[in-house]
Design goal:
Layout (H helix, E strand, L loop, with lengths): L2 E12 L3 H12 L4 E4 L8 H5 L4 E2 L11 H11 L6 H20 L6 E2 L2 E2 L12 E2 L7 H13 L3 E3 L3 E8 L2 E9 L4 E12 L20 H8 L4 E2 L4 E10 L11 H4 L3 E3 L20 H13 L8 E4 L5 H7 L1 H7 L11 E10 L2 E2 L12 E3 L17 H23 L6 H12 L11 H16 L6 H19 L6 H26 L17 H4 L1 E7 L5 E7 L5 H5 L8 E3 L2 E3 L1
Amino acid sequence: MVRTESYETDVLVLGGGLAALRAAWEAARLGARVVVCVKRKLGRCGSSAITSGGYAVAHPAITPQDSWERHYADTLVGGALINDRRLARVLCQEAGERVEDLLRLGVPFARHNGAYRLSPSGDHSSPRVLVPVHMRGTDLTLPLRQAALAAGVQPLEETRALALLVDDGRVAGAVGLNADRGALVVVRAGATVMGTGGAGRLFTVTSNPVDVTGDGYALAARAGVPLRDMEMVQFYPWRAIRPFKGSRVPIQPSTFAVGARLYNRRGERFMARYDPERLESTTRDIAARGIFDQIRLGQDVEGGVILDLSAVSDEDFVATNLKVIERLQPRGLSFREVRFIIAPEAHFIMGGMVIDEVGRTPLDGLYACGEAAGGIHGANRLNSNAIPDTQVFGARAGRAAAEDALAHGPRRVDDGVLQAWARRVEGLGGGPGPQQGTLAGLRQELQQVVSLALGIVRTAAGLEAGLAALDRLRARLAATPVATAGEFEEVVELECMADAAELMMHAALHRTESRGAHFREDCPERDDARWLRTVVVTREQDGACRVVTRPVDREGDEAALGGATPGQVRRIEGEFVE
């Protein structure tokens, strides 16, 4: 008999990073009972805990020379103009209020000469990025965790969500698994918030930790939730692969705004071919493609390109590259003494669940925020727009979910869904498990398939081959026996990874142009006449993916972008011109 643990609450939050924490705290502040299910430890897992923590904001007391309107214009241009205007506007308007909340919680943002230190960035027209003093995500997650727990939030740690529970067209909570206890966990809720993060671990090289595997995208799609912009995968261009071989050490974007240069094997400053005006201080999509081209065309140096810091002052480098300094100091080395080779890594998913301004999805009772939601960033996220996204839409989703739940109360749970999962778990221990290394091998193979099909450069042939490979891999996964709760959990995760990859590949195959982070070698030009649209993928009840496009509502663009047409917009010294 399967052990079942049952909970009833007003709001269920799935995830344990910045978006989930902000949603849970906000809902609890409104008087709602809140349960958080998280795969690992609340506030200490996912990408949030290891991020450098930059927070882009236009705030009258912090950036008096700036405005939310300029931040908004930068966000639209950086997103290649397929952002949801409503969401991008809300992000930039409310980022200031939410950073005030973080400051009240004691989040330590770095200061210099009595003022907040603002890091420059080539994709922002004005310095507006705050950074925490330790440049670690836990500077933000731990104060939010403390606030959420103090407000009465109940965490269910080490608990993986297996499926959303739907009652008569409305989400009624979720069923999960605690592998340590071998227990199914059933949470009945009046409203559910998905703060489940991204899917970087679908790729062989990524900035994301091991628990970021696309679960939220897969669970939402299985429940019929449409997802948008899933073809848009950001590759962080500047991972230092030398002298740091076995760990992830990023070079911060501000380094390029203050003079860092990149050279290929021939000693060519190659970024002049990709962005003649901004050079290395360009957007991440362009930088990643420029570096990757050197690697694939044989102009690399040890698998990357050379980083030249000769024009960067010691003060500027040390102020925003603390992780580099911390790694070198124990060896007694200065950053001036080592050779840096950098290369791209999978980093962030711009796509996600379709939401409105309060994080509401088209499925009644379900909300999404953070990297689980799509539309805010368009085809490319600007540097340090991710953290304000978590706080603005985490707060909005938590508030809306609490109001929804308090009005409707917990829903009935479909016993049939629970029984189906119970049968899968009951079968554990009845026979031999997989041969040693089988599941790890399947995971590695899946990551290789995704990296080839959905990498920085894509083709229709490569995407079609990737989809066929996913089908074969799924068949092998379904035939793999499992004997323990841990093996079962790994199979469930691999199923989610395959589902998320399929959604992304279908979206990438459908967009027959190149835009932002999506570069099709067989369709290399940006086509504003046909493709100022968002790609929306929905999983049908029979499991098939249905792909449609929807036009982008461009109302207000003329005022926001100075009247320039999409193909003419570019940035010169912070101004938008023709």
